[in-house]
């Protein structure tokens, strides 16, 4: 694939950013999830991150940012109010009719998926003013995802540097995966607005807090996507922004407040 610009590519579209010229990128040597865990035990954990439910998350410093190195698993907002757990396909599909549309679920409604892949949240939960992120953290903006991709030197290698290695969690071939950033992206799949699930072990998507105009009758939001068979971040041929329906359920990674 030939591209004229270094880019961070979002689901269904691309957005350009300048190549790294002032930031030196030092590639850590991380070859497996076991190595990641060993490095965390050697104080690679960059900051303490604990949600209101008491879940503690591994963290990793990448450039000037500190990211969660695991997917969010919380069930309550910071003020203690619960986020609705919606399991049935019909109930999920009817969220559009509700005043409070925020919801979470396990992939496939199977709680066993949580320990590896975390929970899936729709955009209404990720963006809610009651705040889904642990204290001192927030759901990243589009610009913060761009900063991450920029630091990792762009579209040609960023996905591989973000994805967990091997084919235990990711389906083969897990192209280009080195997890050299320590981000440890795992293929949690998604739940669509109609309540159906797809993509476990094949792909993962992370919410940003940015809205995409799209259909005037449906709220769409930008999301970053990684795939098992691409070292590149996903892009579309036309180069236009697209987004995922805000009622879809995706993974959430938080970034530390400045």
- Tally of discrete structural domains: 1
How much helix is in the residues?
Answer: 10-25%
For the sheet with most strands, the description reads: 3 strands, antiparallel
Distance between the termini: 36 Å
Gyration radius, in Å: 17 Å
Order of helices and strands: EEHEEHEHEHEHHEEEEEEE
Number of β-strand runs? 14
Percent of sequence in beta strands: 15-25%
Unreliable spans are 1-43, 235-241
User: Could you give the order of strands across the largest sheet?
Assistant: 5-6-13
Helical stretch count?
6
Which geometry do the CA atoms define?
globular
- Which structural class fits the helix and strand makeup? alpha+beta
Mean pLDDT across every amino acid position: 80
Quick structural overview:
The chain is α+β, with helices and mostly antiparallel strands and 258 residues long. The protein has 6 helices and 14 strands.
What report would you give on this structure?
With 258 residues, this protein is an alpha+beta fold. The protein has one domain. It has six helices and 14 strands. The strands form six sheets. A three-stranded antiparallel beta sheet has the order 5-6-13. A hairpin with a 7-residue loop joins strand 10 (203-212) and strand 11 (220-227). The longest helix is centred in the first third of the chain and has 12 residues, at 33-44. The protein is globular.
